[in-house]
Give the backbone structure.
Amino acid sequence: MAANLDEKPVIDEEAYYHDASLGGLWTASRSAVAVTATAYGGIAFAYFYLRSLNSNNAWDPGGVTASAILGTLIVVMAIVAAVSNSLGARRLRKGGVVDWQVSAVFSLFLILLSAGFQIWSLTRLPFTPSTSGYAGVYIAFAPVNAVVLVLIAYWIETLLVKSIRAKREFAQDGGLGLSSLPAAESFRANLEGLGFYMNFFALLSIVFFVIYYVIA
Amino acid sequence: MAIDMSQSTGVGRSGDAGGASAAPSSRYRLNFITGTIAAAIGYLFGHWLGNAIAGHYPSIVNSGSNDPAMLLGFIFGTVGWFAGLGALNYPIAKLWGREVPLAEKKDKYPFMEYFSYSTDHKVVGKQYLVGMLFYFFIGGLLALAIRTELLSPTYHIWGPATYIEVVGEHGTMMMMMMTSIVMGPFGNFLIPLMIGSKKMAFPRLEAASFWFTIPAFFALLSALWEGGFQTGWTGYAPLSIQGGVGQDGYLYGFAMMGFSMILASINMVATIINYRAPGMRWSRMPVFAWGMITTAFTMLLSVPVLIDGLYVLGLDRAVQTSMLYGEHGGSPFLWENLFWFFGHPEVYLLALPGFALTTEILPVFCRKPIFAYKTSAAGMIGVAVLSFFVWQHHLFNSGINPDMRPLFMLSTELISIPTGFLYLVGMGTIWRARVRFTVPMLFMLAVFFNFLWGGITGVYNSDVPVDALIHGSFFVMAHFHFTIMGQLMFAVMGAVYYYTPLLFGIKLSEKLGKIHFWSMFIAFNSTFIPLFIVGFLGQPRRVFEYATRLQGLNQWVTISSYVLGLSLAFFVVTFVWQLVVSRPASPKNPWESRGMEWQVNIPIPAENFERIPVVLSGPYEYGNPNAGPIADLDPVVVGSES
C-alpha cells in the first residue's frame, strides 16, 4: 500500500489476493496437521488409557502384536517418502523440476505401497477384533493410517500431474521452481504445505510405530 | 490430507478466480435432486454390500440388525450424495492435472442455485441459515413431544422406550446441528464482508461443510425409524454398543457433522488470518470475527477427538472390537473421555458465537464503543483455551479418580472468569448508553438476562458436592437450556432480524418482531425457570414418570413450551411472509452501523466490494465526533484491476 498525489491508498489488488492465497495454503496445511495430530492423539489416548487400565487383564494377554515386519515397512517407507519429497522440493527451488518429479514419483510409489501394506496388515492379524484392548486400538489405527496415506498420495499425484501439464507454461520463465508467475508460486506454496505435512506424518508414524510395536 | 486449491490468484475478474466453484454448464446443473437420487443408489448399494459381507455372521444372523450394512449404506449414500451434487468433479479433475475454475459470481442467482453446490459465500450463508433453522425447528418439535408426555405422570402418550428415543433425538439434534448455527449462516455470509474481502479462502470447503449437514441430519433422523437410540445425545457405553441400528444413525450423523465443522473451521481460520483487507489490523477486527476464529480453532482441536470416539463406537458395533467393553480389555470410560474432550468445548462452541454476535450488535444500538474491546477478545481466547481443561467435570459422578475432582472443579470455576469478561463487556457497553430498543437489541438484552440464570447456576454446578446432588436432575437441564437456548438462540434470532437487510434485502417489521420477541422471551423463561424448581424437588432427567406432587409445575412448563412453540411458529410465518410476499425493502445500512459489512450496497454486489477496501479505523467508534470513516472504499487500484 502506498499513497499517490491525492493521498489515496494505492492497492495492487491482484498481488494482494495472490499473497492471501499463498497464506491460505500455508494456514490450511498447518490446520491439516493440527487436525491430524488431534485425531491421532485421540487414538493414542485410547491406547494408553486402555493399556493403563488393563481391564480384566485383557489389554494384551498373549503379548501378540500386529505384523512387525509390515509395521516396519510402513514406517520406513513413510519416512523415506518424506525425505525424498523434501530433497526433491529443494532441487525444485533451484530449478530442477525433473528432479522433483522423479522424487515425487518415488514418494508416490512408496506412499501407495505403504497404504497397501497397511491395508494388507489388517488381513494378517494374529488376533480377532475382540481378543484384547490392543487388538481394538490397532484395528482402529490401521484404517485411519491407510486413509491418511491415500490422501497424501492424492496430494502428491495432483501436484505431480500439474507440474507435468504446466511444464510449457513456465518454461520461458525459468521453470516451475524459479518462475515468478502467480501459478508457479501457488504450486510451490502447495508443495511446501505437502512437505510440511509429510514430515509431520513421518514423525507421527515413528511415534505410532513405537507404541504399537516397540512398547506394546 | 489433500488441500483444496480452489482459490487462485486472479481476483475480481469473473470466472477465473474470485470466489465461486466448479464452472457449471448453463444447460444443466447438478443439484440436490441428482444428489438425492445418487445418495439413494449409494445407500442401497452400501446396504447390499454390508449384507453380503456380514449377513452370514453368527452375531448378525438372528440379531435383527446389521450394523455393517447400516454404516456402509450411510457411507456410500454420502459418497453418492456428493457425487450427485457434483462436488467430486473438482477433486477428480485434479487427478488429471486440470484446474476447474470457480463459477462466476452473480449479483442475482436463479432459485435453483440455492439447491446446488454453490461456492459463493453469500449463497452458502443463506443455505446454512435455512438449513439450520429447519434443523432447529425439527428439534423444537421433538421438545414439544417430550413436554406433551410430561403433562401427566400417570397417563402416557409414549412408552418409556419411545420417550427416551425422542429425548435422544431432540438432544442430539440440538447439540449436534446447532454447533454451526452461527458460523454456518452468519460466519460464512458476513466474515468476508466484515474483513473487507471479496471471497473466502476455500470456497469449495465452505460449500462441502454445508452439504455435509444434510446427510448428518437425515442419518440422525433415520434413527427414529430404526428403533432410536436409548443413550441420549451423550451416547454412553456400554448402552451404546448394545443398542439397535438406530445408534448407527446417531454415530454416523454426528461424525458427518464433525467433518462439516472441521471443513468450515479450516476455511474460517484461513480466511480471517489471510484475507483481511489492508489496514484491517487484529486490533481493528470486528468482535464477531474474533468469535469466529476462536470458535474455529476450538473446533479444529476438539472435533477430531469426537470423531475418534464415534469411530471407536462404530468399530465396536460393526467390527466387534471391544474398546468400550471391559470384559475384553476395553472400558466404557474411554468413550466418556473421548466424547467429553469434545463435548465440553462444544458448550463453548455454542456460547462463544452467541457472545460474538451479541457484542457485535450491542454498540450499534448503544451508540457508543464497545467497552474494553481487547478484554472481549481476551475473554474469547481465554474461554477457548480453558474449555479444553474442564471436560472431566462431566465424570464427577461416573468413576473419575477422586483425587482429580478438585483440579477439574477448579478449572471449571476458572472458566467463569473469561466468560465473565464477555458478560461484563456487554454490561459496560450498555452502561449509560442511549439505547435504541429495536428488535435486535431486545434480543441481545435478553441474552444477558437469560445467561445470568444459566451462568450463575453453572458456577456452583461445577462444585463436586452440588454436582453430585443435582447432576441427573432437571436442574442441570434447566441450566444448560438457559446457557444454550437462552443465550445462543436469542442471539441468533436477534441476528436474523439485524442482518436480514444484508441477507435478503428486506427489513423485517419492528411491530411483528416485538410480538415475536416478547412472546418468546416470556414463554422461554416461563418454561425453564420452573424446571430449576422441579429439578431441586427431585425430578430426574430422561425419565418419563415423576412424582405426582410435581404435576402442576410440569403442566405449567408444558403449556409454556407450547406458547414458546407458537411464538417460534409466529416467527416462521411472519418471516416467510415478509421474505416472499410483502418484501419490505431495506435502505442501505438501516441501523446506521459503522461495520464494514454495512458499507456495501443492498443487494450486495457479486464481488462484495467494487475495489478492495482500505480500512482506516475501528468499527465501533460510535459517538466519537473525530472518528473518520471506517474505510476507503475507493482506493487507487493498480495492476490488472486498474
Chain A touches chain B through 77 residues (CB under 8 Å).
